[in-house]
Each structure stands twice: as C-alpha cells, then as structure tokens.
Task: inverse folding
C-alpha cells in the first residue's frame, strides 16, 4: 500500500514536471492554430485531466508533449464543433484544420513559444501583467501559484491575467515575432521580464519555497529562449542567472545574509558555475557585448576566485567601466565604486559614492557604512547602517546589517 | 484589421507653452504631413481637431425635458484636443503610427481599440 502510494506520488511529480516543461510549447502551438488564448488554455487543462486519468493506467506515453498537444487539439476541436452547433459565430472557427498546419513565415525564428513570449511581454502591457502572463502561459504555473509567489490574493492575480488576455484580444496585440529592426528592443523587454522573475525568486525572503521556484522557472524559460535565438544577450542573461543561482546555498547562514566575501565557496554549485563560465566564453567570442553579458562576466570573475582575496578586482573594475558605458546609471556607478574600493582604497570609493543621488536606495547606505567603517569613521558608519536598516524589510539582510553594526 | 482611436488629450490652458510661434507652426506643418502620409498609406479613416472645450455643450436627454449645460462633460484640465481613427492590421502598426503622430503634434497620443461587431 505504502509502495503504491509512493509510486502515485512519484507519478504525480513526473507529470507535474512534464507539464511545466511542455506547457509553453503546447499552449503556444494551440494559440496559433486556434487564434484564441482562452480556448487554448481550456483545451490544455482538459488534456491534463485526461492525462491524469490515463497515464497512471496506461503509463506515460513515449512523447508526452506530443500526446498532450494532440489531445488538447482534439479537445479544442470537439468544443468548437459542439459550440458551432449552438452558436453561428463559431461556425467559421469550426473550419479549423485538425492537423498541424505549418507556422506562418513571419519572423527570423519559427517557434510558437517565441511568438507567445513576445505577446506576453508586449510593451502595451504593464510590467506586472507581463510577468503574470509569462508565468501562466509559458511557465504553466497555476494562478494560485503565481498569486502566492507575488504575495497577492488569488482573485487579484486571476483578474490581472483575465484583463491582460482581454487586452491582447481587444487591442489586437499580435502573436508574432517582431520585425528584425524592432527585435533587439523588444527582446530587451522580454529579458527584463525574465530577470525580474528571477530576482523576485532570488532576493525575496518571504514565502521561501515557491519563490525559489520562480528563479528556477526564470532559468528554464531563459534556457528555452536561448535555444530559439542567437542574440548573445540571451546567453548573457542565462549566464548571469546561473552564476547568481550557483551561490544561493552559501547566501544565507543562521537566517542572516552572507556577503560575497564571507561566503563558504565550497557550498557554491560547481556545475552551474561551469555552465555559466562556458556561456560567458561563448558571449566573449561573439564580441557583441551588452549589459547582461557584462554583468555575467563580472560574476564570472567573482566565481573564478577560490577565495575572496584572490578576486581579480582590476578586471571587475574594467568590466564595470564597460557597463557604465553601455548602461549608465547611479546604481551601476555604486557597484563600480564598491569594486574601486578594493583596488584604490575606501577613501577614493567613498568620494565617488557620496556624489551619487541614491539616498532612498538601501545598498547605497550599506556601501557607505562599510566604507566609513574601513576609514574608522565609526559614528558615521553606525548612522549609515541605521539608514540602511530603515529602508529594508528583508529579514536576512536586516540580521546581517544589525550584526555588522553591533560589531563596530 | 482593427480600428483604433488615437486621441490627443492635453491641458488647453497650457497649449503651446514653452514653444515659439515658429515651433507651433512647425508642429502644425508636421501634423499636416503626417495626415497626408496616413491617407496615402490606406490606414486613414478619419481625422479631426477640436475647438476649445469651452465651446462644448452637454445635453442630458434621459428625462422628458432635455437638460442643456454649458461647458464640457467633465470639469478636468485635460480635455480631448483632436483625434484620428485608423484601420490597421494590429496594435504594433497602431503604435508605430501613434509614435509618428505624437512626434508631429508634440503631444502624447492615447491608442484605444474600437469594439468589434460583437461588442468586445
């Protein structure tokens, strides 16, 4: 009995994994064939119910993704035919071919998922709606899961997703890969969504379990995207995520944040670091540097050092110089200054930091506190820790900052 | 094809503020050129510029006797100044045209789809 229960749980987990991996592809294909997101989603949901009935008895089919696509396609056609009998406006839709029509030739890459991600991340949708739609349609997360991950009530999230789908339909947001001349800018928008999802999972302290899943989901979607386009910024973002994710096991100890220089590097995930380094090398070879690639390269320098004292700071500063050139922002200047402190000392760095208008950004106060500490200006350092503490709600970070302040 | 309303909403009391007479004339000329190009492209349905909202009259005919009020419907600073109706393939095309229209008339442009025959 216990055995069959364990087997059932194992099968459930396997089915969940398949659905997560295949959801985007199946929904994307059906949206192209049906021209209707809701119809496609409903059909996939029905196919899943059938799978959950049949697979435990018949076993998981050899190509579960294809099985789900065919089953969902048949469910949709059944529904259209049923409704066509009742409702004349579906009559036309019932003409739909039930074979796999080849996708239209309207972009540099022929993949329905790519079309779908550009629709979900369309600039006419608010950022929070892009994130929700991407996780729902491409990631296959349930509305409840997305709501939990973003700490909003399920009804709020359901409404957000419904309204976004209505806008896609009513405003006629195209289901298409953008024209070549628009592609870099639009791809930038997609990458911003994926990076936001990743950081939501990486930086948050509340609701640890499901939120860590967000990082994994962002990595999976970025990995898929990297298989669909040659744009090096996609590889750069993937490398950046992997090299950040690799350090997750060392990031928190005793419920307190552990800064990069103090982390136990033996805890880092060596496989993720190897893959990340490999991607950074591939990016370098294309010689078309962009912000994500440069940030990945900075992380590669850090993860290359066996301990913090072996970090090649001059290379880090050089990379930040490049980043400032392509993506100037006070936050990038702040990060550069932190690296400069290691090369030219805290006094030079503090001078730079004090010029930046970042008083509402808690990392600015943290950087000042640490630099003032090294300059033995302890009263000012304490005041800076206090300001940083007042601006962050993250418990692990607060624990770390309180400890640092107390050790002055 | 989808029809969209592209509307220019602005504060009528601040119109032309910070612009020289020459710049204002230039924006009229640019808008004229945009309109010509729009007609040529086949996406044009209608274009209209409105007079000052103080010229508006609101009529409420829901009761037996229509109630006539001087002035615009809503007492807000920002009022409709003019609009285009375009007919294009999808929102991307509409947004491209809106960007050109906005650059020509020197105002942000709101893009909103018309409801289809079934009211969605």
Result:
């Amino acid at each position: 009995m216990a055995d069959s229960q364990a087997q059932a749980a194992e099968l459930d987990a396997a089915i969940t994994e398949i659905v997560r991996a295949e959801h985007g592809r199946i929904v994307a294909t059906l949206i192209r064939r049906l021209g209707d997101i809701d119809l496609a989603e409903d059909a996939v949901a029905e196919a899943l119910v059938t799978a959950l009935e049949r697979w435990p008895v018949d076993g998981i089919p050899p190509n579960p993704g294809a099985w789900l696509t065919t089953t969902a396609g048949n469910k949709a056609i059944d529904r259209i035919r049923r409704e066509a009998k009742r409702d004349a406006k579906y009559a036309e839709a019932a003409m739909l071919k039930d074979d796999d029509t080849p996708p239209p030739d309207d972009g540099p890459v022929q993949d329905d998922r790519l079309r779908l991600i550009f629709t979900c991340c369309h600039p006419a949708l608010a950022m929070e709606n892009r994130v929700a739609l991407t996780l729902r349609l491409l990631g296959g997360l349930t509305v409840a899961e997305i709501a939990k991950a973003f700490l909003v009530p399920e009804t709020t999230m359901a409404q957000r997703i419904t309204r976004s789908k209505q806008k896609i339909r009513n405003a006629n947001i195209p289901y298409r890969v953008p024209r070549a001349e628009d592609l870099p800018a639009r791809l930038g928008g997609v990458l911003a969504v994926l990076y936001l999802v990743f950081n939501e999972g990486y930086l948050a302290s509340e609701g640890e379990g499901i939120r860590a899943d967000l990082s994994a989901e962002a990595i999976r979607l970025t990995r898929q995207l990297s298989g669909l386009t040659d744009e090096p910024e996609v590889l750069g973002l993937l490398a950046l995520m992997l090299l950040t994710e690799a350090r997750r096991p060392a990031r928190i100890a005793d419920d307190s944040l552990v800064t990069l220089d103090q982390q136990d590097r033996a805890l880092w995930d060596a496989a993720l670091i190897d893959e990340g380094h490999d991607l950074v090398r591939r990016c370098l070879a294309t010689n078309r540097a962009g912000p994500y690639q440069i940030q990945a390269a900075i992380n590669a320098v850090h993860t290359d050092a066996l301990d913090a004292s072996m970090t090649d700071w001059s290379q880090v500063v050089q990379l930040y110089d490049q980043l400032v050139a392509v993506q100037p922002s006070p936050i990038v200047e702040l990060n550069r200054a932190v690296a400069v402190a290691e090369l030219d000392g805290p006094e030079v760095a503090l001078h730079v930091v004090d010029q930046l208008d970042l008083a509402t950004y808690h990392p600015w106060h943290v950087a000042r506190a640490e630099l003032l500490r090294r300059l033995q200006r302890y009263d000012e350092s304490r005041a800076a820790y206090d300001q940083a503490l007042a601006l962050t709600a993250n418990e692990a970070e607060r624990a770390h900052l309180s400890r640092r302040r107390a050790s002055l | 094809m989808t029809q969209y309303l592209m509307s220019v909403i602005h504060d009528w009391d601040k119109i032309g503020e910070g612009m020289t007479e020459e710049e204002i004339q230039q924006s009229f000329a640019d808008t004229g050129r945009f309109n010509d190009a729009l007609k040529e492209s086949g996406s044009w349905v209608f274009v209209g510029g409105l007079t000052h909202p103080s010229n508006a009259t609101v009529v409420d005919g829901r009761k037996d006797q229509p109630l006539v009020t001087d002035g615009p419907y809503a007492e807000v600073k920002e009022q409709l100044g003019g609009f285009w109706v375009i007919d294009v393939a999808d929102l991307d095309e509409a947004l491209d045209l809106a960007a050109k229209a906005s650059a020509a008339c020197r105002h942000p442009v709101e893009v909103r789809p018309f409801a289809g025959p079934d009211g969605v």
Notes: Chain B has a mean pLDDT of 93. The first helix of chain B runs from residue 21 to 41. The beta strands of chain B are 2-11, 44-49, 57-60, 67-70, 78-88, 109-113. Chain B touches chain A at residues 2, 4, 89-92, 95, 111-113, 115-116, 118, 120 (CB under 8 Å).
